[in-house]
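Posting this for the archive.
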Amino acid sequence: MESSVEVERGTAPIKEQFLTSKEKFHAFLDSGRPGQKSEDAEQDSGEPEQKRIRLDSEGAPEEPEKKEEKKKRMRGQNKSRPRMKPQSYEGRRLCPSIIQERDTKCFFGDKCRFLHDVSEYMRSKAEDLGEQCYLFNTFGKCQYGVTCRFAKAHTSAEMKNLVNADLYKPCGERETVRNHLDKDLQRRLRKKQVSFSGAEAFLKTISRGKKLEEDQRDQETQESAVPPVKTVGAITDADIIKLRPCEKKQVDFRDKLYLAPLTTCGNLPFRRVCKRFGADVTCGEMAMCTNLLQGQASEWALLKRHASEDLFGVQLEGCFPDTMTRCAELLNQNIDVDFVDINSGCPIDLVYKKGGGCGLMTRTTKFEQIVRGMNSVLDVPLTVKIRTGVQQNCNVAHKLIPEMKKWGVSLITLHGRSREQRYTKSADWDYIDTCSQLAAPVPLFGNGDILSYEDAMKARETGVSGIMVARGALIKPWLFTEIKESRHWDISSSERLDILRDFSNFGLEHWGSDTQGVEKTRSFLLEWLSFLCRYIPVGLLERVPQKINERPPFYMGRDYMESLMASQHVGDWIQIRSVSNTSIRTLENMTAFTVFRLTLGDTRL
């Protein structure tokens, strides 16, 4: 079948028989939807009452004048749009003491703001989403009890939580996630009772105005004579002798595939998916050092590490030596990581205008003090992620890299774009090659525009020690398998659906299977789907491989699911769970389809 559709400049070349127009594409998707419309189906989907109220109000017809006024008000990024937090979908929540079935009564007694009557809670609880609970089937026990949105699978007639002893005993003894925020540490951070002796010793060298090299030698002499902290019992060598750089933990980064730290989308469930496809190095999302020092639980959650992440690091953002050094010492003493990364490549205004991110590349004195200070308190390697520069035609990375070698960094990652470029231009791999030669013997990783194994092969022809993958992993997380096996993977729509099912299961395990956890999983799944829809199957391409900066035109997939996954409208993603009852029954776990019951009130991403 021939198509007369014109392909615009900058779009990916697709075989002519698959091309179509926007109208025909959406008409095809609408024709394949079984039964009633999504709005009618959503009314019977068992969503929380707050969400149904919100959907009804948003779905009501508006007057033309109000509609025009709303359109004018919701321009740009629409940051002021009304949003509900996941915990807001339950007006009355059950007390944790009841959920966990504790023997002791609630500590707050009558003053507790949560419900203590299970029957009253069940009357207002949203309907269950499925018959099987992933947490119960995997670990033998669901810690969310009756609040779980799959509670029918593990609750008795008396509303008691059931336990599968065969699964629960071995899994209960194994810790799958590390780097939790201790409550006592959080209390001491909020009251500023945590000691930062190593950081304070380094900061004194800056205030005295002496050369950093001389001060470090004096500091080592003083520490060899007096223990840095009060000790109990015999004094060991570790108490009085500071580790030399050569004695710190060493990490072999060469020839590794590095999953970039990705804000929002680079969460723990997504990293688990990438690890299964062959990612060697993973890193947590960017964490603000000031928030970590204040003991914010949401910021500490970014540091969590799964047991499958064998080579894991955390990324810190800050713009002053005192906060960054103290934060490095805090993490060195309280979490388990293999390296710590400094974000000096973040381009967003919120970070840059404060002097952090890319701003550090123009503040070399502060940058040096941050690197040296963090190195002085860390027992693990310190890495740095930078861009080519701030202005588009004014690269400065080649001037900084020789200095970084003197400061003591263990790895440099270079994104081949400047801050001004963002993603409007292709990454400059020739410049990355030049910088890699200047960085030797310190390993330098290249980053930018890697979406296929051919892109990775061209990158490895330069002098880089390894490759960092960012957007390419969001568009196709199986990219790591393609690179390691040197092939193009024409992945089917059912295999891609299995990936989403795994992410949904990992999300329920990480964020929870109650209403709050399900809503969080839906939210992060939506964020990821906004990247996954950009993938074009290999069998449809006129020229292989797909380039990362080429937009996908409207095209018909080889089956209905493949076409549905190509849609960039959130309303079409909802239909993935109800494309075919026959295909759903063939899957062992229906969790992924229940999670696809997304918020109808959202608009195009």
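The two ends are 32 Å apart (CA to CA). Confidence is low (pLDDT under 50) at residues 36-44, 224-230, 577-605.
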